[in-house]
Amino acid sequence: MLLSGILADYIGRKKTLFIGLSLYTIASFLIVLITDINQLVVLRFLQGLGGCCGTVIARVMVRDSFEKNRAIQMLAILSSGMALAFIVAPACGSLLIYFFDWKSCFIVMGMTGLFLLVGIISISEKKEKKNISIVHLLRAYKIAFSHKNFILHTLAISLAWTGFFLIVMEYPLIIMLHLRLSSLQFGFIFPFILLGYLLGTKTIQ
With 80 as the cut, is the pLDDT of residue 5 above it? Predict the structure, then answer.
């Protein structure tokens, strides 16, 4: 995510998004051809590396394209879409595995990546590229990390997301390995767990 933000300023939002989605799409299709677990780990890493560009660039493009109040509304819509994806994706994945096999999930991911790449062509970029040097970046990071509020807010967000992704990572093992439920049952139980997590967060807010 740090690299995609830097690249977005250096080569432009659209090009960075295109590179990231291309990496995601290629990695998704290559996973279908793997022959051992090591290849899966490497390709999943590359898939995540490319996919995270969309998370960053979408927010940056909203900030570039809309005024403050409208940008806040659009960012809220983006966040809701991400939350919905976390809820819907396990059910969709379990159905694909049930009717086909696990590789079908990555075929769908790759096809989704291709669809988004076509959509990027129609996006207009409103903010021009910046000339950025390593010295400039290091100076900017030094200024940011010298602010106590920045560090506190960053830690709070990081810890919250760490907890969320620990849930995403461990619950499949708990539900399928320890509770001995099928992947299809997991796909329809897991969204309710995530929904409870999100509703709890909303209640605290």
Answer: no
Structure tokens at 60: 């940056």
User: In three state form, how does the secondary structure of the chain look?
Assistant: CHHHHHHHHHHCHHHHHHHHHHHHHHHHHHHCCCCCHHHHHHHHHHHHHHHHHHHHHHHHHHHHHCCHHHHHHHHHHHHHHHHHHHHHHHHHHHHHHHHCCCHHHHHHHHHHHHHHHHHHCCCCCCCCCCCCCHHHHHHHHHHHHCCHHHHHHHHHHHHHHHHHHHHHHHHHHHHHHHCCCCHHHHHHHHHHHHHHHHHHHHHHC
Sign of CA dihedral 14, 19, 20, 22: positive
Spatial distance between the Cα atoms of 191 and 98, rounded to a whole number of angstroms: 17
Summarize pLDDT for 93-133 with one digit per residue, the tens.
Answer: 888 988 898 899 999 999 999 998 988 887 776 655 566 66
Which of 14-28, 45-59, 95-109 has the weakest average pLDDT? 45-59
Mean pLDDT of all residues belonging to the chain: 81
CA distance 69 to 61: 15
What is the separation, in whole angstroms, between the first and last Cα of the chain? 26
Query: Which pTM does this prediction carry?
Result: 0.78
